[in-house]
Amino acid sequence: xxxxxxxxxxxxxxxTGIRGSFFDFIDDPWKHVGNEExxxxxxxxxxxxxxxxxxxxxxxxxxxxxxxxDVEITHIPGRLxxxxxxxxxxxxxxxxxxxxxxxxxxxxxxxxxxxEEIKYKNRDYAKAGTxxxxxxxxxxxxxxxxxxxxxxPVAAEEFFEEATRRNMLVxxxxxxxxxxxxxxxIDTADNFYKDTKRLIGQYHRKGRNxxxxxxxxxxxxxxxxxxxxxxxxxEFPDTWIxxxxxxxxxxCRLVEELHGCPDYLSxxxxxxxxxxxxxxxxxxxxxxxxxxxxxxxDASVTFCPVSNFFLGSGLFRLGRATDPKARVRMSFGTDxxxxxxxxMISVLDEAYKVGMINNTHLDGxxxxxxxxxxxxxxxxxxxxxAYYSVTLxxxxxxxxxDRVGNFDAGKEADFVVLDWNAGPRAMVWHxxxxxxNEGPQTMAEAADLLFSIMTVGDDRNVDxxxxxxxxxxxxxxxxxxxxxxxx
Length: 487
Ligand code: GUN
Ligand code: ZN
What we know:
By secondary structure, the chain is α/β, with parallel strands linked by helices. It is built from 18 helices and 16 strands. The protein has 2 domains: 149 residues, Urease, subunit C, domain 1 (Roll), CATH 2.30.40.10; 313 residues, Alpha-Beta Barrel (TIM Barrel), CATH 3.20.20. The strands form 2 sheets. Strands 5, 6, 7, 8, 9, 10, 11, 12 and 13 form a 9-stranded parallel β-sheet that branches. The protein has a 7-stranded mixed β-sheet with strand order 3-2-1-4-14-15-16. The N terminus and C terminus are likely disordered.
């Protein structure tokens, strides 16, 4: 190589380093019952080398720094750095309707959701809402989402355009509904097919955008719409499919009646949609057989505990989805605005409680006939299982774990910087109880701290969010409420 070639090469590559305490995952902790730390990596003093937005090297500072001597390093002390959170199921045009009182899914859709989403016909309204949506994601430490837009193509366009401006890895698509909604909200199967085809051409794999063919749910889909989805998937096999499945009991009953199918999943199976790159949101009422069929088909389910509580949908069977005999791919999602929080930390908080209730139901203490101690155990959301599920596990659940989810070399460098000493007063108490001032020194200490963040903390613990090696969000000091003195 001539010297000018070497020079051009080094000038064109942007290499930087991040020094701090890192925690990420290399495996599924549900595979390591009793030894979950085997699934994780922790470096109290670590170094992440990033080249052109991707991880070039990762490991202990002492080792990696000598191999990368001339790299400019940003030191982030007193924090925990994790791969960016992944929200597997969220609705962009519901950003302005969080906290609508008192309805289950079907009434909530009619009363609050469709009337708000119809406003996204208007490009300016959609643009402003989409901008708020992404601001909220980044402030929550979420770097990737799989999102529903709505019936109108401008909403899908604004979603991909805003994601592109922020250089974020997203999955999304025009959201199809051709029944069960007001006339001016529904689409036709033909239009949905044509618009989806155009949008796939315009956005799929352009920058970091990935396209999901998105029938909203089986209740809002005629056979024509589902046939259009089937045709689209055949024509564009590289695309994702995203929808809802078995969320609410009344919904499930209506779906089976309308489609004449024995269960909810079989509606999507009938149109050959259930397979690799298929995600079904919620899955609260999936039967054992449906879970098994999803596992066999390599399909994915998204656990949305905040929403399942808020809309009263029910308790997702976490221990069933993670059965090693029929392990289903799984991401966790906010389901904003069915979910009343943008924060994946809040999702973990509620997910933990769902698991604990399931655990009580399965341990034999309420009814010995329901006892299943292994499934009961799998419902316990340890910090390893929890943070895996919103990082590497979420990436696996969305079929993007070859690109994001941990700090392996070659991965896209999206990460979140957590401040354990922010937010509620209790966090200060936890800090002194668990780690002392120098921060966690062992993986066990870091895991304890992460558990306290997910159960006591929230988005206030998100200090910074980075996208492909660039800081995209930093909480300003003024956002932090003054702590009340105890003296
Ligand atoms: N099923 C169909 N549409 C929706 C929606 O917007 N939110 C939820 N939670 N479920 C749905
Ligand atoms: Zn949803």
